[in-house]
Amino acid sequence: MKSLGFQDYIKGFPKDFPASIVVFLVALPLCLGIALASGAPLFSGLITGIIGGIVVGMLSGSQTSVSGPAAGLAVIVLDALTELATFELFLTTVVIAGVIQLILGYIKAGVIGLYFPSSVIKGMLAGIGLILILKQLPHFFGVDLEAFGSMEFWDHDDRNTFSTLQYAFGHIHPGALIIGAVSLGVLILWEQPFIKKQTVLGAIPGALLAVLSGAFLHAFVWQKGTSFALHPEMLVSLPDLTSEAARKEAFSFPDFSGLTDFTVWKTGVVIAIIASLETLLSIEAVDKLDPHKRHTPNNREMKAQGVGNILAGLVGGLPMTAVIVRSSANINAGNATRMSAIYHGFLLVISILVIPHLLGYVPLASLAAILLLIGYKLSRPSLYREQYKIGMNQFLPFISTIVAILLTDLLIGIIIGMGVGIFFILRANYKTPYYYRHEEESAEELGRKPKIKITLSEHVTFINKASLLLTFDHLPENREVTIDGSKCEEIDTDALEIIHDFMINAVDRNIDVVLVDMPEDELAKFSESPI
User: Does the model's pTM come out above 0.85?
Assistant: First the structure.
């Protein structure tokens, strides 16, 4: 893969910094909400968001992914805090999980992320999109029955997503609804081509304007005591660090005496496994959203996550993963490089130290509007039509994953989707996916690019996905690559998508791609960008 240098990051600043503001606005309430849902101190979520942005952002090879506290781990954290009795013992499990992830990265266990079928990954994205819509509508209406970062179907008061939504429809707060509607209107307006074509207006993030419009309505239009005035729980609320006592309570440190406790080690292993799977799934999904189709090095990501979790555990943070919601916001805002994730981490620091009271004017309804639009883009209707047209062997794993995620949680949904996908895969034959031949003559001797020919075998399925992807990733730059499908009887959709993504990425690597007897009409189906 083509690596980015210092100049690339400088050139990317005009896109990365505005994107970082959008990610910051989305991440801030999510960090607080997930900490609240986990039963942990609110500041622990912010610590993880800062480390996930700055440290993991620097170490990761992903140009689009953003890391932080994950909603999928909230239940595990809550159960662990109950079982371990003290937050300090829990922090020891986070450090253990980070060490395990670091080891997994060095033994190259990240390759498992390449074996998830494309239909399941797309189902995961669509499922998360629907969850965002269903979970954010109550906040959009001003009904805050659950933490802002909650993503599970069942909550802790025996309510579920649908019962909460039903309650929200009957208890709409007029001020929050108007603020949410105005914010959503601004976002939709800023998506229009005539706005994007304007030099000045097009450079302003729509999400920032949506938040500012909501804050303006709350601070200057709605009068206190009226039915339109927002209640404190409908606004972003940061921990108060103005007093020395509060600052001392903000940081906690692990109790390493728990290293002799089997429960501590068991919890650390569980967190490491779940966090690693969520990270691998997230970066696989985010890579599909990336318009440049760049591929994240999985093992490097595992090392980065390991370092991030070790640091988070040492200073009082929650466990972290790469997170789709924040990463989707990053891509949707038009980021160029990983610096947007790093900038958002610094913005979290500034928000805590400099402007905590100003952020108290930001309505959750405005942030919910941002997430509603992201949710719609992740689960857009055209995605369902595309998957249906490809065939039942792709559509059924796709739709099964969505339904399972909606009714359970992310990991169980993925497992169910994988089971359905494997059923179809086992019906197909699979062999060595290709024959590779590299021309030995140098470009200087022949006056042209050296040629590489990849001849695909009779059957190429998602089982061959990792091999094909790694081959494309390690191809040298400045080559002419011929992909010959003349011997193929069947090319799986996942393999075709890998080839399609390589063709896009090859432009940045000065690689000329020549297709021989390949189903170009099938490849064309992947041309529509998910974002």
Answer: no
